[in-house]
Design brief:
280 residues, alpha/beta, Rossmann fold, ten-stranded mixed beta sheet, 9 helices, 41% helix, 22% strand, elongated
């Protein structure tokens, strides 16, 4: 992993995620780009200064704000990570992030989880849902109050599909520097046919495709996929969960449905990694 992109609103409620992004970059030996999207206030009367001038002035001002924000909140962290600062003018936070991600092609895109204090709308909900659907990079969503800690246990939810192998190989890039265990789990109802045979096949095929052996395999029976997964996360004391967003009937799309956003964010308090099937 070489490059990580982190989008921030430069608020005091985003500082833990900024620090998390830096320390994760340090462990993964990756460069970090910190991005801030800003918009110009609406001009209701004609001014003597052209919009281009106002835009350039705002850019310089926001870049200084971003650098000061990072300097003040990262000053106590010793690291060799190379930090690049980017600000972009866009009325849409989502479009601004997507535009910068298209330019940088990061290996990981980090966002802070929904916070009632976020100045321009939640970083989950509509923004995260749009990024899940459109961003090519894996999307890493970190709870706003989550302090960085070594990742010991990662959970990956599988449906025994070929794309799961590619997703887990991506996950190994994060797990390996921490020597973390990847717990592969399948949430099923009691009526699924030959689920143990499917898991045995999946395990055999996975170990043919990766040399990383710190991986375990579990089956969790629960008619409610969300509740089953949340229960499993608590049971194994997971530090992170990874889910594959498939082209159709994606599990994460269901999780980010507006009726489930509040419940998800109030009950899942660990970072979540969204891997897009079409980008693997």
């Amino acid at each position: 992993m070489k490059n990580i992109l982190y989008a921030t609103d430069c608020s005091k409620h985003d500082t833990h995620t900024l620090q998390y992004a830096l320390m994760l970059s340090d462990v993964l030996k990756a460069n970090l780009t910190v991005l801030h999207i800003f918009s110009l206030p609406p001009i209701v009367v004609k001014t003597i200064r052209p919009k281009k001038f106002l835009s350039e002035h705002a850019y310089d001002e926001q870049l200084l704000v971003l650098k000061n924000y990072c300097s003040n909140n990262l000053k106590d962290i010793e690291t060799d990570v190379v930090i690049k600062y980017e600000v972009k003018e866009d009325d849409s936070v989502t479009d601004g992030i997507l535009s910068e991600a298209a330019i940088l092609s990061p290996d990981l895109l980090i966002l802070g989880m929904k916070d009632e204090h976020t100045s321009r709308g939640s970083f989950t909900g509509s923004i995260a849902k749009a990024l899940i659907e459109k961003a090519a990079a894996p999307l890493f969503i970190v709870p706003s109050k989550k302090a960085f800690q070594n990742i010991k246990t990662l959970v990956y939810a599988t449906d025994f599909e070929e794309t799961d192998f590619l997703a887990i190989k991506k996950l190994v890039d994060i797990a390996k520097p921490f020597d973390a265990v990847i717990k592969v789990v399948h949430i099923t109802n009691k009526d699924e046919y030959a689920v143990n045979d499917k898991m045995a096949w999946f395990k055999e095929m996975l170990f043919e495709k990766t040399s990383y052996r710190n991986i375990t395999f579990d089956i969790n029976v629960n008619n409610n996929i969300y509740e089953g997964l949340r229960g499993y996360i608590n049971e194994v004391d997971a530090d992170m969960i990874a889910l594959l967003e498939r082209e159709q009937n994606g599990f994460l799309k269901k999780l980010f449905h507006k009726d489930l956003i509040k419940k998800m964010e109030s009950k899942i308090e660990i970072p979540m990694l969204s891997l897009k099937a079409t980008a693997l």
